[in-house]
Each structure stands twice: as structure tokens, then as C-alpha cells.
């Protein structure tokens, strides 16, 4: 199902649709918070996504060795905690600002791995964006706990990137990814049960959770694979930098969330910084 989705779709529309699907899924997930809470919504999304991936790819988990699991376990833990802390941040923040703050994690990771002088400029631009949306008293409209949770999600995102690289090098095919999603489901499910209890089993909420899982995991995964096969890595990275803006538009369209002009400026700084680091990364690649 995933690998065959939209095989003739051009790369650029595929990637834009993938980002729209992810952020539309996040907006839809936020509407489930009154019934399930962020923890319940996270557990439902991750668990159902894991079931879908297991059904589609049928990974041979028995063939995994102990050293494979030593790579998969931190990968799955980072994935689960990233989703949990991000959804918790949405209790306090508009979707666009939460995604903007979350992007700080990969940006700092890029700086740490590079240490090129130009990359400090991009991270400085991202830092300016964070300063512009930092808590400014009650009138600022940014909850400190929400900001901290979004930044924590960004830290787990950076850990997810590092751990994902280790899994990709050690475990061939999709087995490592699917196993990691299973680990994330096992990790987040207790939080979901504690927060939502038996509500997780309500048929209408299970169906809604499946929709979130497909929008946020299955569909964008297949579309991103189309884009990755056709686009150079640096172009892919630049386009992915648009995600905070798409998140802000999704929040406005589906949730009625509105950002101030200063917050849009901050978002633009982070988008530009992310795009700049992606372009710099291209120059670091061997010819």
C-alpha cells in the first residue's frame, strides 16, 4: 500500500502533499484532545501507525540480533517521546509555533555536526526567531511550559535523527523502522492509558485515531519516498524547511489559530535558517 501510493505523482507535489498531510494530521489530532488528552492521542496514533506498518511490511523480527535491538530501542524511544512531548506542547501553543520551536533540535544538531562558520549564521537567525516568540508576559501569548515541551520535542527529534542513522546502517530494509515504531507504541501506550483509559477503545475515537495515523505516518511516508527518489538531498531539505509555515496555515485553517505579525516573522527566521543549513550541507557533500 505505502510503496505503491501515487507512483506517477511528481516529486514536488508529492513532498508538499506529504507536509500538508503531516500538519493536517496534527491539527486533526488536536481536536481529539478533549476526549483523549495529548497522551491518549499520541498512544492511539503511534500504536495504530505501528499496526498499519506491521500489516503492510510484515517485518521478520525474529531475525533481529541483540545488537540490532540495541540500535532500534533508542530509535523507537526517541520517536515515541518526540511525539508525546510535541502533542503535549499543543495543549499550550498554536500548531505553527510548536513546529517552529521543534525545528530548533535538528538545526542545533546540524551546527554540532558541521561547525562551519556559515552555519553559525543560520543558527543565529534561528535563535533570533526564538527570541521573537519567547514568552513576553501574558500579552505575549506564548506559554513557557508549551515552549519548553516543543523544544524538548526538538531535542528528541535530533536524537531520532542520530538513532535513525544507526538503525539504517545496521538493519536493512524497513524492518528497523517498523520495529522502532513498535517500540514507540509500547512506550507511549502507558501514558495514553493513564490519561484516556477506556476512551481509547471507543469505536469512533479508534477510527479518528486511525485517520491521524494515516495522515501523520502512512501517507506522508509513501509520498516522501517518492520525493526522495527524485530530488537531491539538499533540495529536499530546503523544501522540508517550509513545514513550520504549512503548520501555521493548517492551524489557522482547521483550528482557527492566528499568529501575530511578530510570530510570523519569527517563523520566517526559522524557515530561512533551516533552508540555509540545507544549502550549506550540499556544499559539504563530496563531488
UniProtKB/TrEMBL annotation:
Tagged with keyword Transferase: no
Membrane-topology descriptor: Multi-pass membrane protein
Keyword Glycosyltransferase: no
Location(s), subcellular: Cell membrane
GO CC, any one term: plasma membrane
Domain of life: Bacteria
Transmembrane segments: 39-57, 69-86, 92-113, 120-137, 143-163, 175-193, 205-223, 235-256, 262-281
Keyword annotations of the record: Cell membrane, Membrane, Transmembrane, Transmembrane helix
EamA domain residues: 145-278
Pfam families linked: EamA (PF00892)
Matches recorded under InterPro entries: Diverse_Substrate_Transporter, EamA_dom, EmrE-like
Protein name: Inner membrane transporter RhtA
Amino acid at each position: 500500500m505505502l510503496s505503491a501510493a501515487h507512483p506517477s505523482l511528481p516529486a514536488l507535489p508529492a513532498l508538499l502533499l506529504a507536509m500538508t498531510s503531516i500538519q493536517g494530521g496534527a491539527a486533526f489530532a488536536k481536536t481529539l484532545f478533549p476526549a483523549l488528552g495529548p497522551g491518549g492521542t499520541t498512544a492511539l496514533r503511534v500504536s495504530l501507525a505501528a499496526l498499519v506498518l506491521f500489516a503492510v511490511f510484515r517485518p521478520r523480527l525474529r531475525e533481529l540480533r541483540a545488537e540490532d535491538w540495541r540500535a532500534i530501542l533508542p530509535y523507537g524511544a526517541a520517536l515515541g517521546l518526540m511525539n508525546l512531548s510535541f502533542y503535549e506542547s499543543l495543549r499550550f501553543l498554536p500548531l505553527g509555533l510548536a513546529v517552529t520551536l521543534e525545528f530548533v533540535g535538528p538545526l542545533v544538531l546540524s551546527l554540532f555536526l558541521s561547525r562551519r562558520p556559515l552555519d553559525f549564521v543560520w543558527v543565529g537567525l534561528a535563535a533570533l526567531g526564538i527570541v521573537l516568540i519567547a514568552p513576553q508576559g501574558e500579552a505575549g501569548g506564548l506559554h513557557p511550559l508549551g515552549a519548553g515541551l516543543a523544544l524538548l520535542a526538538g531535542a528528541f527529534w535530533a536524537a531520532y535523527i542520530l538513532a535513525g542513522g544507526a538503525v539504517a546502517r545496521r538493519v536493512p530494509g524497513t524492518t528497523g523502522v517498523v520495529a522502532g515504531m513498535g517500540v514507540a507504541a509500547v512506550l507511549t501506550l502507558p501514558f495514553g492509558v493513564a490519561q484516556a483509559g477506556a476512551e481509547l477503545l471507543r469505536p469512533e475515537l479508534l477510527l479518528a485515531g486511525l485517520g491521524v495515523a494515516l495522515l501523520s505516518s502512512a501517507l506522508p511516508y509513501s509520498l516522501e519516498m517518492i520525493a526522495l527518489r527524485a530530488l537531491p538531498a539538499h533540495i529536499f531539505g530546503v523544501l522540508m524547511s517550509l513545514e513550520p509555515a504549512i503548520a501555521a496555515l493548517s492551524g489557522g485553517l482547521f483550528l482557527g489559530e492566528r499568529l501575530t505579525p511578530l510570530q510570523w516573522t519569527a517563523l520566517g527566521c526559522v524557515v530561512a535558517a533551516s533552508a540555509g543549513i540545507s544549502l550549506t550541507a550540499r556544499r559539504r557533500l563530496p563531488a
